[in-house]
Model the fold of this input.
Amino acid sequence: MRAVVHDRYGPPEVLRLEDVERPVPADNEILVRVHATSVTRGDCGWRSAKPFISRFINPIVGTGGVFRPTHKILGGEFAGEVEAVGAAVREFDVGDRVFGTSLFGAHAEFVCMRAAGPVAHMPAGMSFEEAAAVSDGAILALGCLRKAGPLEGRQLLIYGASGSIGTAGVQLARYFDAHVTAVCNTKNVELARSLGADEVIDYLQEDFTQNGETYDVIFDAVGKLRFRRCRGSLKDGGIYLPTDGFENGFWLLWTRRIGDKKVLVQIPPRYTKQDVLFLKELIEAGKYRAVIDRSYPLEDVVDATKYVETRQKTGNVVLTVNGGRPRSEKGRGNQ
Done:
């Protein structure tokens, strides 16, 4: 099968398309023919091994080595068709359309998944490209928001509300009945409103830390904020939810013992079938939609990765595999 591989850390150019052995599903696994996947902030971090200190943490949590990557095929999110099922699998059949997240391995034509893992039947009426852009950002946003406890009626600010995690966070917080203030740039103000934000702050025009408003929860969905900068914008007993930054590890420990404003982090992120099924229900109920900025063929993964690393994408960047079409649609031509 074709897959995007890398055997050293470095810039996007270390990625290359190569023929590798197709995985074989174990008794409790399914083999998925991937039609669409995505390039995420996490993929870029695993590949670059930046910041450098992450190289010493990766072996502890099983996401990489100190000097070289241990997972040569990146890609977490996927959507595709079941190609084969293990002997013990009862939930899925060959030909089923599925979506989910594998953490690694989805930048390929095939990926194996535990049937009991974070994979489910695709929502009705959803394309492969849309389904591939659901699981990572939304599950990460869910995990962070849950750390804050019940959100109903609380004032929640989402910084970076137009990225993958941010667009998911706005919709999920709205579903949980929070009062949502979204922070994004000018071009995404209307998008944030359409996703359910009650208020939108254009950070190119206004600094939310200087406007005198305070919030019960501040969620940094893009990893560019720091607790020191925004703690004055938290109400007494307020909670700061970061998604990046080793400095926040210090504040996590500090605020456990000192002060009433807390830094809370979900470590490590947890990807579960229950969350994938929850997202499926929201999508089918019209309560959630995937936001896609750009779509590239798998062969253009380097260009896709470079675009993600501008940190200016809106929503998700998708990779299509073999045109992103199911087998039944291939080879028909113009009929």
